[in-house]
Amino acid sequence: MSILVNGVEITEEMIQAEESHHADAPEPREAIIQELILRELLLQKARAEGLDTSNVNEAIGTLMDKEIKVDLVDEATCRAFYEQYPERFSSGESAVASHILFPLTGGDELSNMLTKSKAEGVLSEVQTAPSLFASLAEQHSSCPSGKQGGNLGRFGRGQMVPEFEQAVFSTEAGQITPHLVQTQFGFHIIQVNERHPGEHISFDDVKERLQQYLTQVAGSEMMQKYLGGLVKEAKIEGYAMPSL
Description:
Elements: E1 3-5, E2 8-10, H1 12-17, H2 28-48, H3 56-67, H4 75-84, E3 90-91, E4 94-103, H5 109-128, H6 133-140, E5 151-156, H7 162-168, E6 175-176, E7 181-183, E8 186-196, E9 199-200, H8 203-233, E10 236-237
Antiparallel strand pairs: 1-2, 1-10, 3-9, 4-5, 4-8, 6-8, 7-8
């Protein structure tokens, strides 16, 4: 059965012509049909408003500018949102650490035992003289960071493999992990240089971005309501439009 929008047909050729633009959609055909129906409804509305529809996209854009007017969300609304969702306005825990990496060699158990033995020897050295960490990293580490004394810079939770992360965030700043840390990459000696707890972001720092975000949300809600009204008033045959 043909799809008709107030008597105007959405053809199979029109649907096929849009396929490449919706390939990533969970249900591409459904997404295409719904978009074509909404586009036709907007075009019909633009004509009814006396707009020039020779360029479809420009006509729809002009119609939207006319019909959807959104004022900037006020500060009180922004502050209410900020106070309601405090978890959205905090930076995560982070650390600055250095390491010395001794790589594993696949399935060669003897080589891995020798590597571990060497790593334990270097661990004893740095525990006795922590000031030697950087020079020993340059000498022994197989990680490119060894050229910078093993310094990995600042990173947050979720950025390192679990075993490495657990060791770093359970060690105090200024300390070296008491044991070798084994990951998929090999054996690590880790020096935790700094620890930074999660920090709350002030309202003043986020106010402008929050205002833009909430204004966009308000605009999207108005658009959904407007499109829903067009669908409700229209006579659509051959397809059941979902609620917007």
